[in-house]
UniProtKB/TrEMBL annotation:
Database matches in InterPro entries: Glyas_Bleomycin-R_OHBP_Dase, Glyas_Fos-R_dOase_dom, GlyoxalaseI/FosfomycinResist, VOC_core
UniProt-listed PROSITE patterns: VOC
Pfam families: Glyoxalase
Protein name: VOC domain-containing protein
VOC domain ranges (all copies): 15-132
Length: 174
């Protein structure tokens, strides 16, 4: 039997490896992603930088293209990239860390299944940091089928600063 006899067999990707950003704002973008992701440079020259924050060889590549013009929200394309944090504690601690670097979210929202903070990089690309609100596998998929989710698939906005303060007060028993 040939390897291509059944072209409909399951052969899906095993994980998301990386994404690449083209920018005319090269140095600022490299610094922002290093700070935002606590990433290390694994390669860098005047044309491209590869960053990682884990065992993967690179998670973000930033390509220097001085000839590019900025996009606008009216352009079609990817809306945002999301990263999951291990816990709500990590989301809040990371919020405080980024705030100290003057990297602030423009939007906080409880989507129901996740609690999220959205940031913009120097080019305006949207990056989400999220944490799952439920630990049970499959609960989010079930929630997607409810009338509650259908009525409000976006969620309820919150102020990230108030959220962090309230979380810290609860953790301290205040």
């Amino acid at each position: 039997m040939s390897i291509v006899d059944n072209i409909f067999q399951e052969a899906k990707p095993s994980y998301f490896a990386h994404f690449v950003i083209r920018t005319s704002n090269y140095e600022a973008m490299v610094k922002w992603y290093e700070d935002f992701l606590q990433a290390q440079r694994v390669f860098s020259n005047d044309r491209a930088t590869f960053l990682t924050y884990d065992d993967e060889h690179h998670r973000v590549a930033i390509v220097n293209r001085p000839d590019l013009i900025p996009t606008t929200p009216q352009h079609a394309g990817i809306d945002h990239v999301a990263y999951s944090m291990a816990s709500i504690h990590d989301l809040v601690i990371n919020y405080e860390r980024l705030k100290a670097l003057e990297i602030l979210p423009y939007w906080g929202i409880n989507h129901g299944p996740t609690t999220s903070m959205y940031y913009r990089d120097p080019d305006g690309n949207q990056i989400e940091l999220q944490v799952d609100n439920w630990s049970e596998p499959g609960r989010t998929r079930e929630y997607f089928q409810t009338p509650e989710f259908a009525a409000n698939p976006i969620g309820v906005a919150f102020d990230p600063e108030e959220f962090a303060r309230d979380f810290q007060h609860r953790a301290e028993g205040i």
